[in-house]
Amino acid sequence: MSNARGQSAGGVQSVDRAVSVLEILAQRGEAGVSEVAADIGVHKSTAFRLLAALEERDFVLPEDVKTLAAPVLEHRVLLRPEFEMEGVEIRDVIKAVLEAVEVPR
């Protein structure tokens, strides 16, 4: 049963959202953070956190989280002016950091 805002009775909105993410992934096979966010009506950062939480429970692979990190993080990273002048791209910096971090098993 849902209330007027579309939330389930009992306030389990996070669970509802996680199930929605799983349904999207089951239907499409893959989906980016932006797609997931748009489909469930949340910000990209919320979609990223949902995907990360599902990954922790082995519903999403760590590689999937790495793939989706750049679109979510790029607006939160600031480059020093000298790197901007050299043409360094924020996505490349994020990718390098993610490649340096070992995927936990």
Textual characterization of the structure:
Helix content is 62%, strand content 0%. It has one domain: Arc Repressor Mutant, subunit A (Orthogonal Bundle), CATH 1.10.10. It has helices at residues 13-28, 33-40, 44-56, 62-73, 81-85, 90-100. It is elongated, with a radius of gyration of 16 Å. With 105 residues, the chain is mainly α. The longest helix is centred in the N-terminal third of the chain and has 16 residues, at 13-28. α2 crosses α3 and α4 (62-73) packs antiparallel against α6 (90-100). It has six helices and no strands.
Q: Distance N terminus to C terminus?
A: 38 Å
- Give the topology string: H per helix, E per strand: HHHHHH
CATH topology: Arc Repressor Mutant, subunit A
- Report on the biggest sheet: none
Work out the radius of gyration.
16 Å
Number of domains: 1
Proportion in helices: 55-70%
Q: Given the C-alpha coordinates, what overall shape results? A: elongated
Helical segment tally?
6
Number of strands: 0
Low-confidence stretches: none
Structural class estimated from helices and strands: mainly alpha
CATH class, named: Mainly Alpha
Beta-strand content: under 5%
Tell me the CATH architecture.
Answer: Orthogonal Bundle
- pLDDT averaged residue by residue: 81
In brief:
It contains 6 helices and no strands. It has 105 residues and is mostly helical.
